[in-house]
Amino acid sequence: MDRIRLAEFLRSRREELQPEDVGLPRGGRRRTGGLRREEVAVLSDMSVDYYSRLEQRRGPHPSEQMLAALARGLRLSLEERDHLFRLAGYATPRRIPSADHINPGMMRIFDGLEDAAAQVVNHLGETLRQTRLSKALIGDETLRTGMARSAHYRWFTDPAARSIYPDDDHPAHSRLIAANLHGMYTRDREDPRVAAIVEALLAESAEFAALWREHPVAGLYCPPKRVRHPRLGLLELHCQTLVDPDQSQSLVVYTAPAGSESHEKLRLLSVIGEYPVQAGRGSDFAGPVTGRRAVLP
Questions:
Q1: What dihedral angle (degrees, nearest 10) is formed by the CA atoms of 78, 103, 136, 113?
Q2: Which pLDDT tens digit goes with each residue over 126-142?
Q3: Do 100 and 113 touch, CB atoms closer than 8 A?
Q4: Which of the ends of the chain has fewer CB neighbours closer than 10 A, N or C?
Q5: pTM value > 0.85
Q6: Which domains does the chain have, with CATH numbers?
């Protein structure tokens, strides 16, 4: 680990970023030329003290998970992320489509959508980032761990994953998800995570196995959706997507026509707050909407 160069690299990238680049207000007078240390810490989901010590050349040896968080927070390119890992003494991460690194350009667009129901999803159905309104609409999907991070896997193994959609829509969702997985498996059998999900679902879900045998082919990537919210009832939504082909990630934005009942419900969600999280497979938290969650035993 090269502490001196790591500290200099972090500081240089922090000073290059402006608040508006990451969706933050500029506020009053700023003594720093770029972001403040506390702002980078928040963007990277770590304590201010931890980040400050890294810049001051006296921090601990960061784990690969912490480095990945820093790369996201500082909006690093893939080349810059690899350089960060090398400075910390690690081999560079494999550039496979299922990586959690989000393209800086997509992150800049995401940062400008804070008031929208938006999320960044990779090709495995793993939600990498969500806006507050997205969490209020469908719950915080970033809390999942293990294979349950994949919405594709949860759909066929966890009944709670289907609870926000009307029963009549389940067959269409199942076919679309199976078709997406089939397409991924056909295109990239070298990705072990795709193969692992497919193998697990073939063993655990008779429904998925039956659909898989039909060799389904995906059509419209994000068709209109009906979402059943526990407090506001049914919302009829459209999906707009921005796809990053290099990293097989999509920025998904849920919208409703202006003046419609669903549009008004989306506006109410920003007041109601976060979706009540249900205890399910792969979920780390559960509890009612109180601003705090109880940790499961």
A1: 140
A2: 999 999 999 999 989 98
A3: no
A4: C
A5: no
A6: 3-87 (1.10.260.40), 104-295 (3.30.450.180)
